[in-house]
Structures are given as C-alpha cells and as structure tokens.
Amino acid sequence: MTALTVNGRPLRFDIDPETPLLHALREAANLTGTKYGCGTGDCHACTVIVDGEALRSCLITIAEAEGRYVTTIEGLSRDRSHPVQQAFVAEQAIQCGFCTPGIVLAAAALLSENANPSAAEIRAALPNLCRCGVYPRLVRAVERAARVARREETISAAPAPGISAEDAARAVPAMDRGD
Fold first, then answer.
1. Is the CA virtual torsion 164, 166, 169, 173 positive or negative?
2. Domain ranges, ordered by start, for the chain
3. What is the pTM for the complete model shown?
4. How confident is the model at residue 80 (pLDDT cuts 50, 70, 90)?
5. What is the dotted CATH code of the domain comprising 2-75?
6. CATH code reported for the domain at 83-149
C-alpha cells in the first residue's frame, strides 16, 4: 500500500505502485481537477505540486510519490482565494478551462519560489500547452498574482465559489425526497 499526503490529507492507495500519480488522483481519489492530456508529459495539463515543485503527474508513479506532499487544484484553496486563481479570473486568462488547473498549479509553484518573476521566467515556468492560445493573458495574470501575493495590489473579490463539495453531496433532487 502506497501512502502520501494529498491536499493536506493522508491517503493510502492499494493499487499497483507503478500506477501514474495522475490515474491514482483521478480514479482512486476522485480528484478530477487534474486533467489527462497526452499521457507523455508534453502538454503539462496534469501538473500538480509535489513537495513544492510543479510536476507532471503522468510521469511520476505513486511509488515515486510515496511519503510526499501533493497539492492538486482542489487543494490550492477551497474558496478560490489564492492570488493565482483570483488573477486568472480578473485577467480573463481562462478560455475552455481544460489546461487551467495545470497552469494555475505551475504558476503557484513558481510564485512560492520567486515572488517577483520576470515575464521570461513566467513563460519558462509555464510550458503548458493551451490550445485556446491565452499565453499573453497568462503572463499578465501571473504578474498580477505576484503583485497580489506581495500585497502591492488587491483584487476586489474572489470568484464566486458556487456550491461546496459538501453541499453538493447532500443535495437530493426534490422528486427523490418524496415532495
């Protein structure tokens, strides 16, 4: 059994230790924010943070992740108040959203290491493939997130979080309640 900490919670996986972390997160832990893109590490859609480093979860096995701390998009901030999440919305750096979790996590890892990255450093830290082509907005969003994290700027409000996972799990359609 493989043990690691995911989004602050200890998890044990009773699956083949050679299973890619991507599949363990999506299929065994039901953390579907981590996206399967190419399976070869080229697109970076599956990026997660492992011990503070942005890694492609399709290229690391759960055996290699044993004992490590993994953060997925679900664990970055429950209320979407992380500066990167706020700045991505404010800068409209999201199109279809498929690549967004991986890019957000890569940006968060960058900002945890470098509080004031240059545009060139941002582009180097975000090799993610975005088929919608929002690259200029990504750089602006990360620059803005850095200013927010350094408390040089504020964003008026976090994006509306919608329905929490707990509330969604408790919701029962009216016809099933006997109404």
1. negative
2. 2-75, 83-149
3. 0.86
4. confident
5. 3.10.20.30
6. 1.10.150.120
